[in-house]
Design goal:
Layout: E1 6-7, H1 11-14, E2 23-29, E3 53-61, E4 67-68, H2 72-75, H3 84-90, E5 99-105, H4 112-119, H5 121-138, E6 142-146, H6 159-174, E7 180-186, H7 189-195, H8 198-204, E8 207-211, H9 244-253, E9 261-266, E10 268-274, E11 286-289, E12 301-303, H10 304-313, E13 317-321, E14 326-331, E15 334-337, H11 341-354, E16 358-362, H12 378-387, H13 391-397, E17 404-406, E18 416-422, E19 431-434, E20 441-449, E21 452-459, E22 464-467, E23 472-475
Parallel strand pairs: 2-3, 2-16, 3-5, 5-6, 6-7, 7-8, 8-9, 9-16
Antiparallel strand pairs: 1-17, 3-4, 10-11, 10-12, 10-15, 13-14, 14-15, 18-21, 19-20, 20-21, 22-23
Helix pairs in contact: 4-5, 5-6, 6-8, 11-12
Length: about 475
């Protein structure tokens, strides 16, 4: 089993779309301000240039149809509070085109209160007006409805239709002020089919944030990857539908406009404790959730910033699942399935190939926002590189030389140059090309137009060679022919 060195930040250069106009929706979990050490995340840590839309989470609802501020000390400036709302909307000063929104709901809010308000015309009208007043007062550009979930978790069958009516009422009032309306929705068919009348929802919202993660987790008896892109050939039945592609296909087939779908990607992994440390492949028996990380302090999940630190400290084995197109890692009896730069670049290309409206990241506060493992915001930067012609923001976010973000030991520079050429012996198609005379040198060919390619030349760190099977630098002994 190979121990690959995953080149990350430099890959953000290689797939810049010249004409892409995709959206990138960045959720911020406001409770991150209470995390300890290097995991402590403040509103000022957000780089708004890397987001077209930022969403502050969460506000709540009351059974009277009021918008409830869940953490007044963190959200407001009253009595010496941290003024999270004000600092969040002020981020637009450094990126005027970025929209600052707020979400209501989330998992902990449950479903029953939303069901009650949405079912009563008087309460619903009161709620709509309260939302508008809230947005005006705190200077937000829009509102994200994260009801988890209609007709589930204490809801009722009429929620499906009432949810449509609620969104219609909100949008009609929002149109008077130019406010944005979005929804966060369950991705998988098993849940979405219970909760949503997809064509009707789609009529009344600007963005549909597809929560295409948590397909597997410690609630399962077997280890599984958080957000696989595709199904494994070993999966069947309902399990074969628990992946990104199946979910996107379901939503499109059932009437969601592709341009409104934002594919949700996670900046965290789902972790497990293996029942047997020697049985560590996908589907291996699990005895429970994985050990909590030092920042997120939640069993069964690890932020990407925690995962990359673990990998840097060594002794973790990283495997790229060839069919599901995402990595997992294990050490002893600890196992985590997650997304990294390589898998998000592929998901970005998937977004483009499916004509989707863009990506949504949950959440910015568990990306490597400090650059502890390499450059800052590697996951968010990777999405920008594929989905947006966002060179100014990328230049400020990348080092002078692209670097390896995830290594088994230390980070080593990997130099890069670029040029424009017609199709020749180097570039005959878009993608990676290996230098046949030097295993440590390789190219990325980006088709510009016709037979013209932008050529990026890369050099692996000393002692490594480029492995075409994993699109990364790897130890020479593990690369055939080198």
């Amino acid at each position: 089993m190979f121990k690959a060195v995953y080149l990350a930040t430099f890959l953000a250069f290689v797939a810049i779309s010249l004409a892409a106009d995709r959206k990138i929706v960045c959720y911020f979990g406001s409770w991150a301000v209470y995390r300890h050490g290097l995991g402590n995340f403040q509103v000022s840590d957000i780089d708004p240039r890397l987001c077209t839309h930022m969403i502050y989470t969460f506000a709540g609802i009351t059974t009277n149809g009021d918008v409830r501020i869940l953490d007044p000390w963190a959200d407001l400036s009253d009595s010496g509070g941290k003024n999270g709302y004000g600092k969040f909307t002020e981020l637009r000063h450094s990126s005027p085109s970025t929209k600052a929104m707020i979400a209501i709901g989330g998992w902990n809010e449950g479903s029953s209160k939303y069901s009650q308000v949405a079912s009563d015309p008087t309460l619903r009208a009161r709620f709509v007006q309260n939302v508008v007043n809230f947005l005006k007062k705190y200077d937000f550009d829009g509102f994200d409805v994260d009801w988890e979930y209609p007709n589930q978790r204490g809801g009722q069958p009429s929620d499906r239709g009432n949810f449509v009516t609620l969104l219609k009422d909100l949008k009609q009032e929002f149109n008077k002020y130019g406010y944005i309306l979005s929804v966060a929705v369950a991705a998988a068919e098993g849940s979405a089919s219970q909760s949503y009348i997809i064509p009707e929802i789609s009529k009344h919202v600007d963005l549909i944030n597809l929560m295409a993660y948590d397909f597997n987790g410690s609630w399962n008896r077997n280890v599984g990857i958080n957000a696989p892109l595709y199904a494994s050939p070993k999966e069947s039945g309902s399990q074969a539908k628990l992946n990104v592609n199946a979910s996107v296909t379901y939503w499109l087939r059932n009437g969601a406009p592709a341009e409104k779908l934002m594919l949700g990607v996670p900046s965290y992994g789902r972790s497990f404790t293996l029942a047997n440390a020697n049985d560590n492949g996908v589907g291996a028996p699990a005895s429970g959730p994985g050990t909590a990380g030092p920042y997120t302090t939640e069993e069964g999940m690890l932020g990407y910033n925690e995962i990359c630190m673990n990998l840097r400290e060594g002794d973790w084995t990283v495997v790229r699942e060839p069919d599901q197109r995402v990595p997992y890692a294990f050490k002893g009896n600890q196992w985590v399935g997650y997304d990294d730069v390589t898998s998000l670049l592929e998901k970005g290309k998937y977004i483009n190939s499916m004509g989707l409206g863009g990506a949504m990241l949950w959440s910015v506060d568990t990306d490597d926002f400090r650059g502890t493992c390499g450059s800052k915001y590697p996951l968010l930067t990777a999405l920008n590189s594929v989905l947006r012609d966002n060179v100014p923001a990328l230049k400020s976010n990348l080092p002078a030389h692209a670097t390896s973000v995830l290594t088994q030991a230390t980070s080593t520079p990997a130099s890069t140059t670029q040029s424009l050429t017609k199709s020749d012996s180097i570039c005959t198609h878009e993608g990676y090309v290996l230098n046949p005379q030097d295993c440590s040198t390789f190219y990325y060919c980006q088709n510009v137009i016709g037979e013209q390619y932008r050529v990026f030349t890369f050099h692996c760190p000393e002692g490594l060679a480029f492995d075409m099977s994993i699109d990364s630098c790897n130890y020479k002994d593990d690369v055939p022919g080198c």
